Amino acid sequence: MKSKETTKSNEISKAFKLYIILFAVALVFTACISLIDRRAIGPNGSWVGFATINEAFNKTFGYTRWLHVVTEYAGYVPALGALFYAIMGLIQLVKRKSIKKVDAPLLVLAGFYVLVGLVYFGFELLSLNCRPVLIDGELEASYPSSHTFLTVALCCSSLLMNKIYFAKNSWARWMNIASIVFLIFVPLGRLFCGVHWLTDIIGGYLIGAALVALLNFSLKSIPEKSKKKKSEK
Questions:
Q1: pTM given for the model
Q2: Which residues pair with 47 in a beta bridge?
Q3: For position 232, what pLDDT does the model report?
């Protein structure tokens, strides 16, 4: 028993350290966007951090409309995993007639979704960088790439939840493979279509990873006996 408790304690400690490291890296990188090599290289003279590397990368690959459209819609697919677990939690709430009786991982995941939404709207308000292209003639905030950090957050949260609930199901393995494919395709597609600066994508990955690390730490902190209320299913 002590060995299992020690192992779990070590896992929780490692998960917390990983979260702190990723949070710190994401925070520092985001701060640097506002401080380092910031010049007016964007449309309508908009200012962009890390201007030299961003300008060079954008000029190399330019703008590709079809890829922009494809990745725009592909970015909505990871939300299906979130919807699946949201419905699962809602069903438990209706059947068990108390939020206290809903599985702890599903409650943690609901809090995670709220946090992701707050981060999304927060960066929309900050508008640290604007896109390298005008969208319908208008400047739009581009840091971090919302498609990137939302894809990372939603796909990785599905991977973590699948491990808890459906580790041995073959269909879940296919869902995991799809999540990994979208983790790669959507962010890189947004980068190479030219609708984002290079640092937007890097920032999206870092912020998404920090959020997922927090979720992972939170899930590991749940006592095993509280993870699934099998007797009430």
A1: 0.90
A2: 40
A3: 43
